[in-house]
Design brief:
Blueprint: H1 2-37, E1 40-46, E2 61-67, E3 85-87, E4 102-104, E5 112-118, E6 122-124, E7 134-142, E8 162-178, E9 184-192, H2 193-205, E10 208-213, E11 226-227
Parallel strand pairs: 6-10
Antiparallel strand pairs: 1-2, 3-4, 5-9, 7-8, 7-10, 8-9, 8-11
Keywords: Membrane, Transmembrane, Transmembrane helix
Domain SAF: 42-102
Protein name: SAF domain-containing protein
């Protein structure tokens, strides 16, 4: 009886000793790991899905610590770096915020204006269009001055008064509005004040304004449009 109790006590003592040793080893491992990583710094990450072309709200910004040796100049360390900025691409939750995907909230100046193209009058052919992309605008409208049917290969008959033509070429996208399913519902384009009149006329009276993604490179600063 006493022998059994003594054995149980011995096993318990050994178990406690092993547990303490494991804790000490784990603590030493953590300390060594932290020491090998060196000094830690705080960077900002997305605390939710951030849409492209819109200001980044404070409630979608969180912080995370990383080893200083992994710090890059493009990583965001202060919220002040996000003021007046928008993301050029969608940023998923948990993604580290960097200056490479940000730009000023507007590329407008005294010379340029933003005109918002809205569905259903505006039709966006490419769902991948994003801020700073270049696009062409093709407008279709009715006119008594439409060419004769035989002069229009796309005409549906003598009574067809519709005209389709290039309104603007290689204009810069400033903002993109998306639905929850990432369908584009509106788009802000950069035009001069004079060019804005033609775009607004189209929004009011055209049958359709089709937005085509251009093969031109993304804009890096304010841009206008070439009118046809």
């Amino acid at each position: 009886m006493f022998e059994t109790k003594r054995r149980a006590l011995l096993f318990m003592t050994i178990s406690i000793g092993m547990a303490v040793a494991a804790i000490l080893l784990f603590s030493t491992y953590i300390s060594n790991t932290q020491a090998s990583l060196g000094e830690m710094v705080t960077v900002h990450v997305a605390d939710g899905n951030i849409e492209a072309g819109k200001p980044i709200p404070d409630n979608l910004i969180a912080t995370k610590e990383i080893p200083k040796k992994f710090m890059l100049p493009s990583l965001i360390q202060s919220k002040d770096e996000l003021k007046g900025k928008i993301s050029m691409v969608p940023i998923p939750k948990g993604e580290v915020l960097t200056t490479t995907v940000l730009r000023d909230d507007t590329i407008l100046s005294d010379k340029y204006r933003q005109v918002i193209l809205r569905a259903p009058i505006a039709v966006f052919d490419d769902a991948t269009i994003s801020a700073l992309d270049k696009v062409d605008l093709i407008v279709t409208y009715e006119s008594e001055d439409a060419p004769k049917a035989e002069e229009q290969p796309h005409s549906s008959g003598p009574s067809d008064k519709r005209i389709t033509k290039v309104l603007f070429k290689d204009i810069t996208v400033n903002t993109v509005g998306l639905k929850n399913n990432n369908e584009i519902v509106n788009m802000g384009v950069v035009l001069t004040l004079e060019q804005s009149k033609s775009a607004i006329w189209g929004l009011n009276y055209a049958k359709e304004i089709r937005v085509l993604k251009s093969g031109s490179q993304k804009a890096t600063k304010e841009g206008g449009a070439e009118k046809k």
